[in-house]
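Many introductory courses stop at the sequence. We go one step further.
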Amino acid sequence: MTPSPLETTPDVLSAALVSARRVLREERDALDALAESLGPDFNEAVRQLLACKGRVTVTGMGKSGHVARKIAATLASTGTLAQFVHPGEASHGDLGMIGRDDAVVALSNSGDTPELEDIVAYTRRFGILLVAMTRRADSALAQAADVALVLPPHGEACPLGLAPTTSTTLMMALGDALAVALLEARGFTAHDFQVYHPGGRLGRALLRVRDLMHTGDEVPLVAGETPMSKALIEMSRKGFGCAGIVDEAGHLVGIITDGDLRRHMAPDLVQRSAAAIMTRDPRSVAPDALAVEALRVMNSGDRPITSLFVVESGRPVGFIHMHDLLRAGVD
C-alpha cells in the first residue's frame, strides 16, 4: 500500500519522535517511583513465595493478563514453578489447576476486575496465598490479598489516559523484580539457567564443556613410555589426529599432534617413545567451563588449535574438538 503524503511529511515524523520520547520519559519516571516505593510488602511477598511448596499461578485479565503470562514464563525459567491461568477459564474448571499448597499472583490495574472474583474467592476459601499487584490499595483485590504490591500513582502515557501503557510497564517491571529477587534468594546459577534454556543462542552460550566432551574409551591417551608405533595406532583409532600423554599418576603431561609428527619425522620415529615426541604442558580446559571458554582457549595464543583435553585435578577426564562446538552452535 502506498503511504499517504500525510504519513511521510517531516512535521508528522517530527511529532512522532516527540510523542515517543514523551512516552518513554513518562514510563521511566514511573519506574523510578516504583523502585522507591518498594518496601516491607515486597519483602513479605518474596518471603511467602519462597515458602510456597507448590507452584505459583499468575493471572490477570486483558492487558494485565498478557503481562501475567510473561511473568509466569519468567518465574518458570528462573527456578520458580509457575503457570499462567486465564481467569475466565479458571471459572470454567481451571481452578482445579491450583492446588492447596500453591500461591496466586493476581494482576489488575484497577483492582476491581470482575473476572478475577472467582479465582480470588477460591484462594480465600482454601487458604491459598494471594499476592495482588494493583494500582489501588483500597481495591477489592488489594483488600482480599495476603500481600498487596501497590503501584505508585501514575497516569497512562496514552494522551487519552485510557490505553494501558505505563500501568503494564510497571507491572512487567515489578514481575521481573519479583522473579529476580526469588532467583537470587534461591541461589539460582548459570548452570540451572541452562537447564531451563537448552534451545536458542542463550542455551548454546550456557553449554558446559562436560555437556559436549568425549569421555571414556573415546579419549586418545597413551603413557609416556609407549613406543610411537603404538601411539600412532591410538591416534588413528580415535580419529582426532592427536593423543594425550599421561605420567604414572595419570596426569596429563603432554600431547602429540600431526604437527609434532611432522617436526620429528625421521626413520627412527616409530621406535622413539611418546614422551620424546610430545609437546609439553598442552592447553586444556575444565569440565565445568562454559563451552565458549573452550573455544576461546582454542583460539588463544600464537597458534590456534582444534582440540582440547578436559582436565580435572590434573587428570584428563574428557576430550573436546572444534567440531563438537560447531555442531552445538557455539560461536
